[in-house]
Amino acid sequence: MASAPENEKNASAPEKKTLTLKSMINNEEFVVDEHVALQSVTIKNMVDSDCAGDVIPVPTISGEILALVIEYCKNHANPSASEDDLKKADAGIVAKDIYTLIDLVLAANFLDIKGLLEVTSQKIADSIKDLPHQDVREIFGVENDYTPEEEAAVRAEHDWAFEGFP
Amino acid sequence: MEPGRREHKKNQKIEAKSKTQFPYLPEEIVLRILSKLSIDSLLRFRCVSKPWHSSIHDLKFKQQQVIVMSKRVEKWIIKNLSIQLIDHRGSIKNLPVPKPFMQPTKLPEIMGSCNGILLVRVGLDCFLWNPLNRCCTKAISIERFRYNFNGYFIVSGLCYDSYTDDYKIVLWNSGHCFVMVGSCRNKTWTEIPFPYYGRKVRAGPTIGGPFSLVDKEN
Q1: Are B157 and B206 in contact (CB under 8 A)?
Q2: If you average pLDDT over residues B190-195, what whole number do you get?
Q3: Average of pLDDT values for B151-166?
Q4: Is the domain of B32 the same as that of B121?
Q5: Digit-coded pLDDT (tens) for A15-32
Q6: Where is pLDDT greater, at B173 or B159?
Q7: A125–B44 CB contact, under 8 Å
Q8: Do B189 and B181 form a contact (C-beta atoms < 8 A)?
Q9: Mean pLDDT of A147-165
Q10: A59: nearest CA in chain B?
Q11: B88 to B84, B92, B115, B166, B215: CA distances (angstroms)
């Protein structure tokens, strides 16, 4: 659906510049209007310094995640979108499981897209705030460097915060 | 049934994790996420690991979090004194009361806050209290203002001076044409002329470090 009008646009208005972003993980390619892609400061710097060829390779970001990033950029490049529309659209983009959100926040950080970084971090915070710390440790892949006694001591300092948690 | 289900859930999680290209998030992203959490989550997540503990220790309080000290207490029942945390969603949590605040005849009063640290007056002593890590230190005495405090309208605030790494207390009362600035580091008071009068002076909000007194008429 999305690609059809884009092709049309390219045919009728060839002066409109596009960039091709290519995920280096699964080689998926995305053709994007330049002004949409330039919301990424990383891509903007590449284009400004003439480092960008016809195809911009994006390392470490999968096609699935890149599609979400491009959806975000498209929404925010639309000058007629109201603040309310954007909020709803953002909420839709980050309505994902925690592991997808972690990939997305890394992508937003790498591509330097401030707004996306902000909404994704907020969503991650909302998703983990009521989880036991053991689950948070697992999700973030953090190694537990406490001895059981040390952990118990830290916990005892604020026992009230652990009420109802394992 | 129950253990089987749990096992299944765990497998799913590990499978999902392998999709992640980086199993570890850079520290700046972790900090960004932590800074969006409320105090009760943060206190629990100190148990995640030692690096998380120190990151959370260094975190500043969220702007939206407001500390409210309840004053509905009868003098002889200390346990009714409660300190409550209200976060930006409006949920209320009771916080443990630091020992120095538990004085049968004196009620603690919040005189200002800055960087998540509260300035609390108990009688003639001022304390700096960080509810996040429970640090409570006696900052400075207001003994010399013992008689100035009665019957006057007091405006107070706390600010941080990054140049001298010092928390400073600003006091003003409607009876004087100077403000008193107290240094928590040096335990000294300095008088600064203040050319405004009247009851319309209010403490302005502290943003980051600077403290301002706002005169409503000017």
Answers
A1: yes
A2: 81
A3: 78
A4: no
A5: 678 999 999 989 999 999
A6: B159
A7: no
A8: yes
A9: 87
A10: B21
A11: 13, 10, 17, 29, 28
Residue B93 with chain A: CB contacts under 8 Å: 160
Query: Does residue B90 form part of some domain?
Result: no
In B, minimum Cα distance to A151 occurs at B47
| Full domain range(s) for residue B186 | 105-215
Question: Domain residues of chain A, as ranges?
Answer: 3-129, 130-166
Q: How confident is the model at residue A109 (pLDDT cuts 50, 70, 90)?
A: very high
**Pick from A99, A136, A160: CB nearest B20:** A99
Q: Examine the domain organization and report whether B181 and B119 are in the same domain.
A: yes
Whether B180 and B111 share a structural domain:
yes
Sort residue B51 into left (φ over 0), alpha (ψ -120 to 50) or beta. Answer: alpha
For residue range B15-35, list pLDDT tens digits in order. 444 343 345 788 889 989 998
Query: Do the chains contact at A140 and B25, CB–CB below 8 Å?
Result: yes
Specify the number of domains making up chain B.
2
Q: How much of chain B is helix, strand and coil, in % rounded to 5?
A: 25, 35, 45
CA dist A31 and A38 (Å) reads 13
Does the A3-129 domain belong in CATH 3.30.710.10? Answer: yes
d(CA A106, CA B52): 19
Neighbours of A81 (CB within 10 A): 15
- Check whether residue B208 and residue B147 sit in a common domain: yes
Query: Which two tokens mark B184?
Result: 């928590």
Give whole-number Cα distances, B186 to A4, A123, B110, B189, in Å: 71, 44, 21, 9
Top-confidence residue, A94 or B158: A94
B77 falls within a domain: no
The helix/strand/coil state of B155 is: strand
Q: Is the pTM of this model over 0.90?
A: no
CB of B122 closer than 8 Å to CB of B106 = yes
Residues B205 and B110 in one domain: yes
Tens of pLDDT along B33-64?
998 887 778 889 999 999 898 888 777 544 44
From the CA of A144, how many Å to the nearest CA of chain B? 5
Q: What is the pLDDT of residue B19?
A: 40
- Mark whether B52 and B125 lie in a shared domain: no
Closest-CA residue of chain A to B32? A121
